[in-house]
Every structure is written in C-alpha cells, then in structure tokens.
Amino acid sequence: MAKAFVFPGQGSQFPGMCKDLYDAHAEARELCQAADRLLGFSLTDVMFNGTAEDLKQTKVTQPAVFLHSVVAQRLMTIEKPDMVAGHSLGEFSALVACGALRFEDAILLVSARAQAMQAACEANPGTMAAVLGLDDEKVVEICEKTSGVVVAANFNNPGQIVISGEVEAVDAACVALKEAGARRALRLNVGGAFHSPLMAPAAEALAEAIHKTEFHKPFCPIYQNATAQASMEPEIIRENLLKQLTAPVRWTQSVQNMIADGAAEFYEFGPGDVLKGLIRKINPEVQVG
User: What domains, with CATH codes, occur in the chain?
Assistant: First the structure.
C-alpha cells in the first residue's frame, strides 16, 4: 500500500508548539537551533513561550508551522513516503520531505514568502470567507458573477471551500452564496486575500528568491496545490510553487489524485490534525494516521 505524507498550512499553530519534541530529541533541538540561526531571531522562543497573538506575527507563523512539520516528520520511524503534498504553506515542508529542497533553503524561502505576503496584504487589503454546503462549481460560478475581485481560493473537501478577494466583493459573494443555498458563508479572521490575484505583488517579490534557490529532483512525486498533479521535475516544481500564491489550493483534487495513483495510507506531520479530517471527508475508506 502506498504511503502519502501530508503537511498543514498556516492556522495550525498553537502556543508551546514543538516544545515536547525539542525537549525529547537531539535532532529536534539541532533543527530548531539551525532555524533560529538562519532567521536571525529566536523563532523557537516565540513558539515555546509566546502567546497565540505572538504566533500570529507574519514573520513567525509560517516558519513556525514549517519547522514543527519538518521536525515531526524527521522524528517518525515510518519508512520514506511514496508521495507527498502540503496545504498551502505546507507545500514547503513536503518539498523538504521528498528531497526537493534542503531544510536550510526551505526555511529561508518560507521567511521570504511570509514577508512578501505581508507586504501584499498591506498594499492590497482583502479578506477570505468559508463556504459550506455548496458544490465547487456553484461557488466558482457565483464568484465569477460577483463584481470586484473574489475567487475560490481553497478547495478543502467537497462542500467546504474558502473564497478570497477584496472585502466588498467577498461580502457580496457571501450574500449571493447564502441565497444559493450555502449552509454557511462567513468571513474568516485573516490578514489578507491569500491565493487570489491580490497576492500578485507577493509572487513578484518571491520570484527572485525562488529562482536563486537550488531545487533537486525529488525521490517521490509531490502533488502541488496549483495543479493537483504529481510533479517530479525541479523546474516544474519551482514554477508551481510560485503560481501557488495567486492560484487556488486544490486540496480535494490533490488527495483524489493521490488516491487514484495508489495512496492508501495518509500520515499528517505538523501542529494539529486538520488535514486528517479533510482527507476522511474526501474519502472515508483510506487509512489516516
């Protein structure tokens, strides 16, 4: 049975994250100390001792979730995966897990990504909203008919989508989605319109860093958010990683494609277990650990 490793994104952080692993394992301490050196500040101090509010800082959240995920995967005794995927930010942890990126290069890219996204949020204010109980196609159709910038940003599982865009456009789409029968269409407490055209400045800012970074051929396929397809070629991986900032996270389709390609066991590595729940809803028959 093929094994798939999956990694969560922003929002799964919590105070005290990774401290139990740090205290118990020398390898965890080495990775955490390397992260602090590379970033030029004590990320681990915020992770271990900071408040939930401290962990919401852009420069902290993304590297913290990435670091916890990599540490958790490195400490597991499960043999190498047959395929990997990550949800949004989690794609960077997945790239480390399959050998496409070195840990040191990946954490610097994650930091650059966080800073670029924060700058884009300040330049182009926006928001996101969770939509429950409508078909994917209907949500996309309503977003396309709504004035302003609003798009389907996260296809999390059938009937659970996140939309993203300009505040007024997202609010207008929420009204239309409820009228169309959505069980819920509610704005999220986020700092910007992630995975939407409003993130274009972030993609431009991150492009140079991504193109300067060495990507290696992975030892197993990575199913990337932008396409939901298996990728093995470094140049394709690089381009998809850049597209990810403005393209939707096709998580439902990624998991379905992984299962179609033989994945029967999914293992989530990182803070929390949100992906386990999503995968069970996408296909209740696969094993999730």
Answer: 2-122+197-288 (3.40.366.10), 125-187 (3.30.70.250)
